[in-house]
Specification:
This protein is globular. The protein is an alpha/beta fold. Helix 1 crosses helix 2. The chain has one domain (7-140): Alpha-Beta Complex (Protein-Tyrosine Phosphatase, Chain A). Strand 3 (53-60), helix 2 and strand 4 (90-93) form a beta-alpha-beta unit. It contains 4 helices and 5 strands.
């Protein structure tokens, strides 16, 4: 089985959004430990789409709202018209699942219909870094 390249990034709630476009196209596992205000979430959703996120798996606080924001940002990016298959963003949200199950799905089942996603980003919205813990959890999935 091919193992995608994994990158962990901690992002402070309402903090600056880093340049991640070099990873495009990519899958993102959004782990939301500390949510931010709605306007920042919308900005972050647009940033994800513009940066090349093509599969988003949202987990944690207000994860359904995060997935909906990314869905809407993808539609907005194409003026609410047809989205080319290679630009389509698939989203899931899993507020009732354990994070281990989300990681397992990301590693073994999440596939884009038109692209091979070589990179998976763990985007951790939090004030406390959990890099080692989340990377180890992903590796065991």
């Amino acid at each position: 089985m091919h193992k995608p390249h994994l990158t962990y990034l901690q992002i402070l709630p309402e903090g600056e959004l880093p340049d991640i476009a070099r990873h495009a196209p990519f899958a993102a596992i959004l782990v939301v430990d500390d949510d931010a205000d709605e306007m920042w979430r919308w900005d972050a959703a647009r940033w994800l789409v513009a940066s090349g996120c093509r599969f988003l798996l949202a987990w944690g606080k207000k994860c359904e709202s995060w997935a909906e924001s990314v869905d809407d940002a993808a539609l907005e990016a194409f003026d609410y018209d047809d989205i080319p298959e290679d630009k389509r963003v698939l989203t899931t949200w899993d507020e009732d699942e354990d994070l281990e199950e989300v990681f397992w799905f990301a590693r073994h089942r999440a596939r884009h219909p038109a692209l091979a996603l070589e990179t998976t980003l763990i985007l951790h919205i939090a004030t406390r870094d959990r890099k080692d813990e989340l990377e180890a959890l992903y590796a065991r999935a």
